[in-house]
């Protein structure tokens, strides 16, 4: 009957359109054998081969596809349009000036992307051509991986990687299990156990496996690594097939490695690009930094508007003058329009250089090269892991310097995720391993009871047996892992426990210390050694796996006496509602006490099942497990039906210690002006204790609770408005009076958050609950969100991102449940923790420990933002200086579109003469020392350079310098000027003079802004100026045969031979730089910023200098040295101190010599 229902399901899910057949599930014929006649309809399906393709291009589509992708960028398309305009019409500059830089950028990018794709091609070939063993006609045949097909039976040996997604049929182990590591998929290095269906375990040889007659029905490929729904139909002598369920525990994923198993036989179900690993290749959505989106648009739009105004103004003036000319009166109107339009394009080309293509190249190089400073940072290297920080994307470097909200996980992020069993409670009696009782240290087989009353022996034994049986722990014998032998004790091999969950290992090891030892799982029987050294065997009937919704797991076992027992462990919120008897109040009190102390708690319960109850439970489980549609929902319903009417046994307490320097890191983030939100799935008391320990909450913090318990007593509306009034009232009081403001901390749980988020969707409530919640959260220094599901974590981050302030958010976590919020935040950081590497793989940056976040934000992020802001604004400044004299020149050349600068200067200004100094500045500049940034986190808040006032200042400074360049040279050479040999200065000499002043001024301006000087700075800055001089001498000193003109011949030498020209260059450079120098001096003296104050040597450093002064003079006159020391120290804080120093020649020399930076 079930088989007929399945056939009807397939027929109803088929949509026939011509020859196309669409199925929402697939049928795999093992060994390509058709089912027996009359068993089911044979539906042949075509599947892709096992070829992996990670490359992007092929040899024939590389050029067109790459060019299409590059010119999709608006910047490249714009410069292409300018280049085409120069080719089509007569423009004042050569097309080479725009075409050469664009060709260079496009070529370099194409070579880079082509090389990266060639490497991917090589990797694909090595994977697709690796050998694979396939069972054909009872023999093992070796073939290449890309030739595998769905339905092939594959033989995999120990330490080999699975070539595709396989369903395990049998293994060299008698119980049909195998051990697998999935480190290449999710980073988890622990061994996982996979199972074969019991009906195929007996097929252990090639001939036996080849004789297997079965089909597999499963879902279509989907990327979830931990989900698989299917069933296997085994055909034997009888007509009806034997159906068995298949789940994720039967599916061996491509990329995983077989361990501690000689060999296995498995059948291919997903191949090639349909494997789960290949489906996870899909790149996540590209993140763009706020600096790139806002500042880049601001600079490009402003530059474009400025150039457009210049173009329209110049073209209008020219056409106005020419319209009065008699030579143009007789021209038709259409020709005049065409003439005006071509002039507009010509001037547009002439002023094009204000937005140079080299700026985009420089920014990309700065981001790419700057990211290496994170990976090279030795302070962010972890000796225990043997790894340092990783940068998965360099596009968000500057975003690290503008973070306003930090969302962090608790377990494994703030804590070590290294669990240690502390105690357990059975019916109110507390058991502590190796405790001191009556003055004696008890051994592991002794139990110290902290209460007077004794619980029944039966409940004790059931509690300890429950923890020894209700888990998925593996027992491993002696093994070599990374060259280290584990499981060796006193020269004899012993066992140790491995599990994907550290909690389970801690509980099993804790039971071992209390006298109950879990031995092994053998032939579906679990063996434990009780405190009387007797081995007990329990048949494992069913495992009800843990999930984040139920927050519990259960096992059904049968004892040696034939009694069926259901053991369950889970969170208190999921166990207590299902308990019908037991000492609930005593256990609940102990659980709450442990939670307050920051311990992780689990409750343990059991239920005896009669034979009829067990058969009913087995029926529910089998029906759910065999379902191909909605299996997870059906399993959840079956679990809910079975897990009820519990008898409470007790609870456990496990400690997860706080990570090293986690509290110091959170305190520094608070001082830096960031708001830290902890998002965790733990219960409120445990999470709150961790928040106090990590200094997220202080003892003076007033805690505001927005929890389900409170909303049950009051309505959600009343609670929200009461908290809002409390916060806003305190803010209004602190606004009028200078008092110590109360520090608020908010605690919210998942149920209340769901109600808040749901209110806007349903339109319920008199007010917008989201806005009220955001207002409360914004006025709290820290927020704790407990009992959070992974999706709710992402919803919290998205809610803050979408608020009216649009703050920059950062999410940090270590587990798969943190991936959603990491992808949602502006910046995602993964921690290389013990819960796998899913978070690190999906993040933008990865760090070994939470403490490294401090330096990543306060130092690297601060530097990145300052550097990129200076780079972008300096580029705009130097191009305003470059192009504005060209605009002014048009008023003196009859609007003839005559360029002021030579073509070579136009081309090389942004490529060679001025690009390297700013690139190096943006890589190595340190306006404040690293130690000062770590010591004073408040300096992080001073990162606000990309603002309109700063932008306007740079623009005005560029216009002022351009006016000084042009009119300074114009008025100094108003009259005809002769050189020593009687030659006159022409327009190219005038333009070269302006250009020389321009290059020296913008380069020296950068030198004045540099605080951290190294030999590389000196080499690049002075080397760039020297390169310009040498190039000009060669360019004007040689007659180049490939040029149609020789207008620059001897111009530069002629200019340098004139004494007035030298004087003019020096004078104009000084006048151009003087206003910026005066502005900086006045600002530092009158109203210095926090950054400028931090650049002044501290009192302690000055005292050390004073002691050095005393030491210097001690050999001459110790009394005089003491007088100098006392004079300097006593007047250091005095306003008149520096006046005294300057008025005293000796003290002035001393202060200058000893108050310098150490490296000077």
Describe what is shown at a glance:
The chain has 1160 residues and is of the alpha+beta class. Helix content is 46%, strand content 18%.
The multimeric state of the shown protein is: single chain
Shape: globular
- Separate helix tally: 41
Largest sheet: 10 strands, mixed
Derived from helix and strand composition plus strand pairing, the structural class reads alpha+beta
Low-confidence stretches: 1-23, 436-455, 479-493, 735-740, 761-767, 1098-1160
Membrane topology: Multi-pass membrane protein
Active site: 409 (4-aspartylphosphate intermediate)
InterPro entries: ATPase_P-typ_cyto_dom_N, ATPase_P-typ_P_site, ATPase_P-typ_TM_dom_sf, ATPase_P-typ_transduc_dom_A_sf, ATPase_P-type_domA, HAD-like_sf, HAD_sf, P-type_ATPase_IV
Binding site for Mg(2+): 409, 411, 814, 818
Q: How would you describe this protein?
A:
The chain contains 41 helices and 42 strands. The strands form ten sheets. Strands 18, 19, 28, 29, 30, 31, 32, 33, 34 and 35 form a ten-stranded mixed β-sheet that branches. A nine-stranded mixed β-sheet has the order 16-42-41-40-17-36-39-38-37, sandwiched between helices. Strands 5-4-6-15-7-13 form a six-stranded antiparallel β-sheet. Mean pLDDT is 77; it is low at 1-23, 436-455, 479-493, 735-740, 761-767 and 1098-1160. ATP binds at residues 409-411, 504, 546, 569, 600, 680-682, 787, 793, 817-818.
């Amino acid at each position: 009957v079930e088989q007929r229902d399945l056939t009807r399901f397939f027929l109803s899910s088929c949509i026939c359109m011509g020859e196309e057949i669409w199925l929402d599930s697939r049928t795999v014929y093992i060994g390509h054998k058709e089912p027996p006649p009359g068993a089911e309809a044979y539906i042949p399906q075509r599947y892709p081969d096992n070829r992996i393709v990670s490359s992007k291009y092929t040899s024939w589509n590389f050029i067109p596809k790459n060019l299409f992708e590059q010119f999709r960028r608006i910047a490249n398309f714009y410069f292409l349009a300018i280049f085409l305009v120069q080719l089509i019409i007569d423009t004042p500059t050569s097309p080479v000036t725009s075409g050469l830089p664009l060709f260079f950028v496009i070529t370099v990018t194409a070579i880079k992307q082509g090389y990266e794709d060639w490497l991917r091609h090589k990797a694909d070939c090595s994977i697709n051509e690796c050998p694979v063993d396939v069972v054909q006609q009872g023999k093992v045949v070796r073939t290449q991986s890309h030739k595998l097909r769905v339905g092939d039976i594959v033989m995999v040996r120990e330490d080999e990687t699975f070539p595709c997604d396989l369903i395990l049929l049998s293994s060299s182990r008698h119980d049909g299990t195998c051990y697998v590591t999935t480190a290449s998929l999710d980073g988890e290095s622990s061994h996982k156990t996979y199972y074969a269906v019991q009906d195929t375990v007996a097929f252990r040889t090639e001939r036996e496996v080849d004789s297997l007659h079965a089909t597999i029905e499963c879902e279509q490929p989907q990327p979830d690594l931990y989900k698989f729904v299917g069933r296997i139909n085994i055909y034997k002598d009888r007509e009806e097939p034997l159906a068995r369920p298949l789940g994720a525990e039967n599916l061996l994923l491509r990329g995983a490695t077989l361990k501690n198993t000689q060999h296995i036989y498995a059948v291919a179900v997903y191949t090639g690009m349909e494997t789960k690993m290949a489906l996870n290749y899909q790149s996540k959505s590209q993140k763009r930094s706020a600096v790139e989106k806002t500042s880049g648009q601001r600079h490009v739009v402003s530059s474009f508007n400025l150039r457009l105004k210049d173009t329209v103004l110049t073209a209008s003036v020219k056409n106005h003058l020419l319209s009065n000319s008699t030579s143009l009166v007789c021209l038709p109107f259409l020709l005049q329009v065409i003439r005006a339009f071509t002039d507009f394009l010509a001037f547009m080309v002439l002023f094009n250089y204000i937005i140079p293509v080299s700026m985009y190249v420089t920014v990309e190089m700065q981001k790419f090269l700057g990211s290496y400073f994170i990976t090279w940072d030795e302070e962010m290297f972890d000796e225990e892991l043997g790894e340092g920080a990783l940068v998965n994307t360099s596009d968000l470097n500057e975003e690290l310097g503008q973070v306003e909200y930090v969302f962090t996980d608790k377990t494994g992020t703030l804590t070590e995720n290294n669990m240690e069993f502390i105690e357990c409670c059975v019916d109110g009696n507390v058991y502590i391993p190796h405790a001191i009782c009556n003055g004696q240290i008890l051994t592991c087989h002794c139990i110290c009871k902290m209460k007077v009353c004794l619980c029944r022996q039966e409940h004790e034994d059931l509690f300890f047996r429950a923890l020894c049986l209700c888990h998925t722990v593996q027992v491993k014998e002696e093994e070599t892992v990374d060259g280290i032998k584990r499981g060796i004790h006193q020269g004899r091999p012993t066992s140790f426990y491995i599990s994907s969950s550290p909690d389970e290992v801690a509980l099993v090891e804790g039971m071992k210390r209390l006298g109950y030892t879990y031995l092994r799982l053998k032939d579906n029987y679990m063996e434990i050694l009780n405190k009387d050294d007797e081995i007990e065997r329990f048949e494992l009937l069913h495992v009800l796996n843990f999930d984040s919704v139920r927050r519990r797991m259960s096992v059904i076992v049968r004892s040696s006496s034939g009694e069926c027992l259901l053991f369950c462990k889970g969170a208190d919120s999921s166990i207590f509602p299902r308990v019908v008897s037991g000492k609930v109040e005593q256990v609940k009190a102990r659980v709450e006490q442990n939670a307050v102390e920051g311990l992780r708690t689990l409750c343990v319960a059991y239920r005896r099942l009669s034979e009829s109850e067990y058969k009913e439970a087995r029926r529910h489980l089998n029906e759910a497990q065999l379902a191909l549609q909605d299996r997870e929902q059906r399993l959840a319903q079956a679990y809910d039906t079975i897990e009820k009417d519990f008898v409470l046994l007790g609870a456990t307490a496990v400690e997860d210690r706080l990570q090293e320097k986690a509290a110091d890191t959170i305190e520094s983030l608070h001082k830096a002006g960031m708001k830290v939100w902890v998002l965790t799935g733990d219960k409120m008391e445990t999470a709150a204790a961790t928040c106090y320990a990590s200094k997220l909450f202080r003892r003076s913090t007033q805690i505001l609770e927005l929890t389900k318990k409170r909303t049950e007593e009051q309505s959600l509306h009343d609670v929200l408005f009461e908290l809002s009034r409390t916060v806003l009232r305190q803010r209004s009081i602190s606004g009028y009076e200078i008092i110590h403001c109360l520090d608020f901390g908010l605690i919210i749980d998942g149920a209340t958050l769901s109600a808040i988020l749901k209110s806007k969707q349903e339109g319920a409530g008199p007010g917008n609950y989201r806005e009220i919640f955001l207002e409360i959260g914004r006025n709290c220094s820290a927020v704790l969100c407990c009992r959070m599901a992974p999706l709710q974590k992402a919803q919290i981050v998205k809610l803050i991102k979408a608020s009216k302030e649009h703050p920059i958010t950062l999410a940090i976590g270590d587990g798969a449940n943190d991936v959603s919020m990491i992808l949602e935040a502006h910046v995602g950081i993964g921690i290389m923790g013990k819960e796998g590497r899913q978070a690190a793989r999906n993040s933008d940056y990865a760090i070994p420990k939470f403490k490294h976040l401090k330096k990543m934000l306060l130092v690297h992020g601060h530097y990145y933002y300052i550097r990129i802001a200076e780079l972008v604004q300096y580029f705009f400044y130097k191009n305003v200086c470059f192009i504005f004299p060209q605009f002014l020149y048009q008023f003196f050349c009859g609007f003839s579109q005559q360029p002021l600068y030579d073509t070579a200067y136009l081309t090389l200004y942004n490529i060679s003469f001025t690009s390297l100094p700013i690139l190096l500045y943006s890589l190595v500049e340190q306006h404040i020392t690293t130690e000062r940034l770590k010591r004073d986190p408040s300096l992080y808040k001073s990162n606000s350079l990309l603002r309109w006032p700063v932008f306007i200042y740079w623009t005005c400074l560029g216009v002022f310098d351009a006016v000084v360049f042009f009119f300074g040279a114009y008025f100094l050479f108003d009259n005809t000027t002769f050189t020593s040999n009687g030659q006159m200065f022409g327009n190219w000499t005038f333009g070269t003079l302006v250009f020389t002043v321009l290059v020296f001024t913008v380069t020296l301006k950068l030198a004045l802004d540099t605080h951290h000087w190294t030999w590389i700075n000196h080499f690049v800055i002075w080397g760039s100026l020297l390169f310009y001089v040498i190039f000009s001498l060669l360019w004007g000193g040689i007659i180049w045969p490939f040029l149609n003109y020789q207008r620059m011949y001897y111009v530069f030498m002629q200019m340098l031979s004139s004494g007035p020209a030298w004087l003019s260059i020096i004078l104009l450079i000084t006048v151009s730089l003087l206003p910026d120098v005066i502005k900086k001096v006045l600002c530092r003296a009158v109203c210095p910023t926090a950054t400028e104050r931090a650049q002044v040597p501290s009192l302690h450093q000055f005292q050390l200098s004073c002691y050095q002064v005393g030491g210097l003079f001690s050999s001459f006159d110790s009394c005089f040295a003491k007088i100098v020391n006392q004079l300097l120290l006593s007047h250091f804080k005095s306003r008149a101190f520096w006046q005294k120093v300057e008025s005293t020649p000796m003290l002035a020399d001393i202060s200058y010599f000893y108050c310098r930076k150490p490296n000077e």
